[in-house]
Amino acid sequence: MSEDKPLRPWDIFNKNVAKILPIEKEKRLSICSSCPEFISLSKMCKQCGCFMPSKVKLAGAECPLGKWGQMNVSLEKEADI
């Protein structure tokens, strides 16, 4: 995905957008779950409004508070996941 185009929630369904390994997804979601900006009931972030179980899977996504950032993952590498 080009750097000038921000990720959108529906990018989780785009096979051309890199996803991260499940272990990394769990690390990100754990960080979010312990954040005061995380709404436990809806699993959404108060800062960005995203549904976090989906957002944390996107390699190019990042926390609006800087608690976790983008990861470099190639789509070829992801095919093995």
Please tag this protein with its features.
about 5% strand, about 80 residues, mainly alpha, two-stranded antiparallel ribbon, 3 helices
Explain this structure to me?
A hairpin with a 4-residue loop joins β1 (38-39) and β2 (44-45). The chain has one domain (17-78). The chain has helices at residues 22-33, 52-55, 75-78; strands at 38-39, 44-45. The chain has 3 helices and 2 strands, in the order αββαα. The chain is globular.
Structural class: mainly alpha
Order of helices and strands: HEEHH
Shape, principal axes of CA atoms: globular
Measured by DSSP, the beta-strand proportion falls in: under 5%
| Number of individual domains | 1
Question: Summed up, what is this model?
Answer:
The chain is 25% helix and 5% strand. With 81 residues, it is mainly alpha-helical.
Set down the secondary structure blueprint:
Elements: H1 22-33, E1 38-39, E2 44-45, H2 52-55, H3 75-78
Antiparallel strand pairs: 1-2
